[in-house]
Amino acid sequence: MATLSHEAFRRITEGFGGCHEYFTEMINATSLLNNGPWEKFYLINETAPEKIVWQLTGSDAEKIAEAVPVVCSRGGTGVDLNMGCSAPQIYKTGAGIAWMLKDISETEHLVSLVRNRLDEAGRQYGRKFRFSVKCRLGDEDYTKEKFFDFIRMLYENGVELVTLHARTKKEKCVRTVPRYEIVEELALKFPALDVYVNGSIKDVSSADFALKKCPSVKGMMIARQAAVTPWIFSLLDRYINGTELKVSKVDRMQVALDFADYVEKYQPEEFYRTRIQRFFAYYCTQFFFGHLFSSELLNYKSIEDTKKKIEGYFERNPHERFIEL
Predict the structure, then answer these.
(1) Which pTM value belongs to this model?
(2) CA distance linking residue 74 with residue 127, whole number of Å
(3) Is the CB of residue 188 less than 8 Å from the CB of residue 218?
(4) Which residues lie across from 52 on neighbouring strands?
(5) From CA 88, how far away is CA 66, in angstroms rounded?
(6) pLDDT-derived band at 38, boundaries 50, 70, 90
(7) Count of C-beta atoms within a 10 Å radius of residue 272
(8) Dihedral (C-alpha) 137, 143, 149, 151: value to the nearest 10 degrees?
(9) Residue 56: phi, psi to the nearest 5?
(10) How crowded is residue 202: how many other Cβ atoms within 10 Å of its Cβ?
(11) Are 199 and 166 in contact (CB under 8 A)?
(12) What is the rounded CA–CA span in Å between residue 60 and residue 134?
């Protein structure tokens, strides 16, 4: 969810009722501590600040631990360590899923440091900060024994929640569905550990399938599909909990225009292009002429030009503007 899980996107999602937790983009601990020029934008949490989960990444255990009090000073639910990102530009630096592939003692050192800093932050601010980890199954030669040993290490060092994308490092969308049966086995094997399921959940039907495969999980994480249909959380909340929809009719043109406005307001100008391109590469897939629509918006020139292109698409295709939920 790099370049997607930022304040502009959260505002769009929250407009439909939001979700229970917002995991931030991966925040590089070293850059944060060095006061990098962009880090302040990763720390914006004006929308539902109590729901924010700070997702930290990096290759240096001490730096990651040192970043914990920095993010905790801004509130939120807690801190999440990303040990699941398999993008080569991430894991080749020793971050992301690389933490699952290192000697387990090295990763345990990181986890122990972060737990201690979270406890210190909790005492300082008089509240509890949750400790979570997002991970995959491991490398292609993973075994369930090795995977569960890794989870046991996390649990014994104070991790309270694990979000599992039950694919290996190289598996992206190659498999039709993740190995949901291992997610269920994880939840049953560690009943005191909260487990979230992640991967291939795109709508009510796929969510129902996942929950039937792993009924013992405590939650589910939605990633890129939220950029296609930012109202997905409300639909799932209605299906699972019977919650009444905040919005029953979606103006898909206005959603697109609002996103462009929020990017301009909450992102640095240097980020406009990538944030616009990334979001609309997904959002446009729901439209009949989505490929053409996306191509127009990927050819970014300015925020104003983006809004003109959005309005132009719906002028040509007015029947695609509104949908009932």
Answers:
(1) 0.95
(2) 13
(3) no
(4) 22
(5) 25
(6) confident
(7) 17
(8) 20
(9) -100, 150
(10) 15
(11) yes
(12) 17
